[in-house]
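QUALITY CONTROL LOG
STEP: pairwise intake check
CHECKER ROLE: data steward
CRITERIA: each record must contain a sequence immediately followed by its C-alpha cells, with no blank fields

ENTRY 1 OF 2
RESULT FIELD BELOW
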Amino acid sequence: MRIGLMVGPERGRYAEKVERMCAAARWAEDVGLASVWVPQIPDEFDALTAATVVGQATSRIEIGTAVVPVQPRHPIALAQQALSVQAVCGGRLALGLGVSHHWIIDEMLGLPYEKPLRTMRAYLDVLEPALHGPGPVDVENELFRVHNPLDITDVAPTPVLLAALGPAMLRLCGERTDGTILWMADERAIGSHVVPALTAAAAGAGRPAPRVIAGVPVCLCRDDEVDAAVERTNRILAEAETSPNYQR
C-alpha cells in the first residue's frame, strides 16, 4: 500500500489558493508520500491545469486527477490537454476519468446524462489510441467519428484510471484501464466487491492486476472543535446522499 494526498484548492483568499496547493504538494513530496491527487470540483480549479502547476512545483511525486468528467470534453481535446500536462510533468501524470453525476452533468451543465457505460466505452475507444501516440487516431463508433493525428509527446503511455463502483463499470475498468479511483468506499466494499470484480475483468482481458486508488476523507481537529468539524464534514460529504453512484 502506498499513501498519497488530495491537494485540491482550499476555500479562502483567491490569491493564496495556488501557493497553498503547491505548498501541500511540495510537503507531500518532501515527506515521502507516493502521490498527490487533484480533484475536479464544479466551481473550482480545472484539475489538469492545476496538475500542471503542481508538476512545476515538484520533481518526483506522481500527480493524478480525481477525476475529470468526460461528458464536457471531446476525447481528442482531453488527450491533447493530458499529453501536454504529461510533457510538462515529465511522465508523472495519471489521468483519472469518470462519468460524474447527474446533478453535475445534467442539472449544472445541461448535458445529457444517458447510458454512462456506453459513453465511457465509446470515449475510451478514442482516448486510448490518442494517449498511446504520437500517431494518427482513426475511430468511428456510435458516439464519435475521429480522424485526427496527435504529435505532442513521446512520454507514453499515460495511465488511465476510471471512477467505477457498479459491476459493469468495474468490468470495463478492469478490461481496458490501469485501475480505479474510489471515493468514500470502505474496506468491506473494496475487499469484497471492487477488487474481485476488477481483477477478474483484468485477468480475462490478459491485463495485469489494476491499481485501486481509495480516496478516504479525514478530518483533523482539536478537542474543542469536534462539533464544528462534524458539521463541516457532514456538509462537505452530503453529496453522497444525492449521488446514486455512491450508494451502489
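ENTRY 2 OF 2
RESULT FIELD BELOW
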Amino acid sequence: MNDHAPPTTHRQTRRGAAVAAVVVLLGILNLVIIGGADPARDDSVMVLERLQAARSLHAAESGIRIVLRLTLSGQPLPAEGSTLALPGATVEFIQVPSGGTGEIVVQGRSGPCRRTLSAIVH
C-alpha cells in the first residue's frame, strides 16, 4: 500500500490560490462597507438634529404670532403654561401679557431641541 498523497497538479494549486484571493477580497470589501456606514449614520443624526432645531424655532415663532393675532383681534389669549401641539413640534406659552401690553415668552420644542422666543407688546 501506498500512504503517500497523490501529487497536486498545477490546476489545483491555481484553484486554491483563486479561492484564497476571493476570500481576502470579500474581507476587504466587508471592512470598507462597515467603515463607510458609520459616517453615513453620523450624517443622518446631524440632519435629524438640524430638522428638530428648525422645527422648534418655527414652533416658537408660531406661538408668538398666535398671541399677537389674538391680542390684535381682542380674542382670549392662551393661558400661561398651556401647550399647543403642532405637526412635529409643540409650543408652550410661558408668559402671556394681560391687558394687551407686556412681554410674550413662548418655547418651541421638537425632540430634544428647545427654542425660547420673546416679544414686547406696547
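INTAKE CHECK: passed for both entries
DESCRIPTIVE NOTE, ENTRY 2: The chain has one domain: 10-121.
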